[in-house]
Every structure is written in C-alpha cells, then in structure tokens.
Design a protein that fits this description.
single chain, about 150 residues, alpha+beta, 3 strands
Length: about 150
C-alpha cells in the first residue's frame, strides 16, 4: 500500500472516532450534570434554612392563645422545636443529614422593644461531587408584638 492509498484509507475509516470522542467528553458531561444537581440542592436547602429561621422567629414573637385567662409567649425550646420541625420536613438530604444547630433568643415579658433571634446552622454534605462539606446558616430577627387587647 503506497502513501496515497494509505491516506485515503485513513480518511474513509473513522468508525471508532465517535466512540473515542464520546468517551473523552462523557466524564465532563457527567460532572456538569451532577454539579448542577448538587448546587441546586445547596440553594434549595439554603432557602429552607432561611424559611425555617423565619418560621421559628414568627412563632416566637406572637402571643399564644389564652390559657387560664392569660396569654403567653413561646419558650426557647418550643421556638427551636418549631424551626426544627419545619427544617426536618422540607430539607433534602441523601442519607443522614449533616449536623443541625438551632439556637434562639425568645421575647422577655410584654416588652415590644425586644427581638426574637433564631439562628440555624447546617452542614451540607455533597452527594456525588468530592468537595467535602459546606456550612449553610441563616439568622432571623423579628420584633416582639404587643399583646392585643380585645374590647
């Protein structure tokens, strides 16, 4: 086979080129797809953490219903339970969720100058990508409501 015939043979016989190109590009495509999924989960979980802190703060600033003729405010433990329930029902994890730390500072007495502060910290573990963990946190502050007097 001379050089001219060999060059013509190389141009015509490209059966394996597509598979080789696909094998080279496939890992990059998989990385992009899973990267989109992972970072979408991070943004979703961040929104859920923010909403959870907001739910806990909102529960802490309103006056509860009357018990024994007296209205009450929620305790620190109850505020953290409400925020934790919201977080537990909405956050997306694969397997065991990362550490969740919820802390709050409730209203004191009937003062309207106080604020309820709810802070949530969550450690998100990546599902596929080998990036380790990322810490997500949110804090919500709301002014305490005054007690409503119904005439």
């Amino acid at each position: 086979m001379n050089t001219k015939n060999f060059m013509i043979y190389l141009r015509k016989n490209k059966d394996g080129a597509t598979i080789v190109e696909f094998a080279v590009i496939l890992p990059l495509l998989i990385l992009i797809v899973f990267g989109i999924i992972e970072f979408s989960l991070i943004f979703y979980n961040k929104a859920i953490i923010t909403n959870s802190a907001r739910e806990g703060a909102r529960a802490g600033v309103v006056w509860g219903p009357e018990l024994d003729g007296k209205s009450y405010r929620l305790t620190k433990e109850k505020i953290e339970e409400i925020a934790g329930d919201y977080l537990g029902n909405h956050i997306i994890t694969f397997g065991t969720p990362g550490p969740i730390v919820i802390s709050s500072e409730p209203c004191k007495g009937e003062s309207t100058t106080d604020e309820v502060t709810v802070t949530i910290q969550y450690t998100h573990s990546f599902f596929v990508l080998p990036f380790g963990n990322i810490n997500l946190s949110s804090q919500s502050k709301m002014k305490c409501e005054s007690i409503a007097v119904v005439n």
